[in-house]
Amino acid sequence: MVSFTVRMEIPESERETAKEYLRKLAAESRKEPGCVTYIPHLVEEGPATVLIYEQYVDEAALEHHRSTPHFQEYAANGLYKLITSRSLERLHALA
Hints:
Blueprint: E1 2-9, H1 15-29, E2 35-42, E3 49-56, H2 59-67, H3 69-76, E4 85-91
Antiparallel strand pairs: 1-3, 1-4, 2-3
């Protein structure tokens, strides 16, 4: 299992645009056969921050996700063009 979070800060003025990209990206990503969980969040406090929790059955499923047309459209050519910072944390499930 591959699990991680992605944290992205976006300008406050882009909040609604980011939400729309995330809704579309989540809906399509959840249809992928190797996607276990894809949950985007807006952090309630502080600057406009997106947190996405993702799980895939294996590395191949993650690579497939990153090569899909919806990832290219809504993430690489959409959301990523709005962000001011991005960090990724790989997770190791304990139970």
